[in-house]
Amino acid sequence: FEYVECQLLRLNLVSVHNLMEIKRRFIELDADGSGAIDKEELFLVDSPTSDIEFAMEALKSIHHEVEDLKALREKMPLDEKLRVNEQEQAVARETTREAALNKTWGRFYRQAWFKCLMTFLAWCGVACAFYTQWQGWPFLMSLYYGVQAGLAVGYPLPSEDAICGYDGFEGPASRYIYGEGQQYTPFEEGGRGGCMAGDLSKLFTTFLIILGSGIFATSFGIITVAVYNPPGGWYKRVIKEARLQHLKEEAENTEGWADDVWIYLQILANSNVFHAGAVFTFWVAVGVAYGCLSEQRMTFLTGLYFAVTSMSTAGLEGLMPLGPMTDGPMGAALPRISDIDQGHFAFVTLYILIGVPIYGWALSSIVEWCMRSLNDKFIADTLNAQISHDEFSLIDFLGDFNEKGAHGDGKIDMFEYVECQLLRLNLVSAQHLFKIKK
Fold first, then answer.
1. Helix axes 414-424 and 430-437, enclosed angle (nearest 10)
2. Which residues of 268-427 form beta strands (DSSP E)?
3. Taking a C-beta distance cutoff of 8 angstroms, is the pair 56, 391 a contact?
4. Where would you tag: which of 8, 12, 184, 253 has the fewest CB atoms within 10 A of its CB?
5. How many whole angstroms separate alpha carbon 199 and alpha carbon 187?
6. How far apart are alpha carbons 348 and 354 in whole angstroms?
C-alpha cells in the first residue's frame, strides 16, 4: 500500500492532500472500526448494470496477470529470490546512476532539452533556407517569419504575396511570378491578387506551421515536466506546504495586524501565481519599452497591445516599415518591411520565443489558483458520493490480491478504498496501479 502511494506521488499523479482526504473519508465510513467497509455500511440501493461484466473481466485479466507473477515468485527458493532481487536492485542502481549522469553537462547530448534544441534549430534552418532563397528575405527576417509562424503568432507583415509585385526579382520563384498565367486577378478587378509564387510559399508555410507547432508543444511539455515534476518533487511540495501552514498558524497566533501583513506577504511571495505574474509583468514591460523607445515609435498603449498580443500569439500588432526620421518626403517610412534594421527581427524573434511560454505559465497558474476551490469541491463531492453497486463489485480486484479465482470477500479495506476513489477522481488509471504493483 505504501509502495503504491509512494510511486503515485513520484509520478505526480496525486498529492498527499488527496490521499489524506480519501483516508479520512474511509475512517468516517468504517462505522464498526473493523478496518473494512461492507455493503451494509454503504447502504447500497442501486442495481448492477448489464454491461458491468465487461469491466470486471478487464480488471480480472490484469489482476490475474499480476497474481501469476506473484505466484511464480512464491514458488522460488529463498536463495533464488534473493539472487533475483539482488540482480533487479543492481539494475535499478545502474539505471539511477545512468539517469543522474545523463543530467550532467558531460552528457548534455542525451538530455531531452538538447534533442528538442537540435530539432528546433534544424526546423529553423529549413525555414531560413527556404525564405532566403524563395522570398529573397534577409536571414534574420526569414528566422523571424518562420518562428512567428511556428508559434502561430501571425503578424500581418511581411506578406508572402508581396513577392508578386516585385520588379526584376531574381531567384527560383521568378518563373512563378513572371511566367505566363502565374499572376492572379488583381484586387482592382475583383480578385484577391497574388501569384503562384506566393501560393507555393504559403504551401510551404502551412507544413512549417504544422511541424513547428508540434516541436514547440513537445518542447514546452518537456520543460513543464522538468519544472513541475523534478526528482523528489512530491516531498519538496510537502515541505513547502508545511512551511506555508506554519506561517498561517504564526499569523493567527501573533497580535496586531502589521505582523500578519508581513507573514501573508511571505506566503504570497512563495506562491506559484505570484512568481508567474511577476515574470509576466516584467516581460510585458520589456515589450512596452521596446515599442516606445525603438524606431517603431509606439505609444504606451500600442506598446502594451504589441507585448500582450505577441505573448498570447494573437499577433495583432507587428513590425512596421519604419526607420530613423529623415527630412525626405517619406520621413521615417521605408519602401519594404525588409528594409528596416535587422535587429528588430532578432529582438522580436527572441521576445516571442521567451514570451509565449511565460504567457502559458502565467495563464495556467492563474487558472489553477482560480480553480482550486472548485477542484476542492469536486473532490469533496466525489468522496461523499455513494459508491455504486457496480463499483463495489469491481473494488475486490483492486488493493491487495485475493487468491486466484476468488470472487472477493465482499468488503472494502483501506487500500481498495483509496484506489477506488483515485479512479473515481480520474487521477490515475487501472493500468497505472497494476504496473506499480507488478
1. 140
2. 411-413
3. no
4. 253
5. 16
6. 10
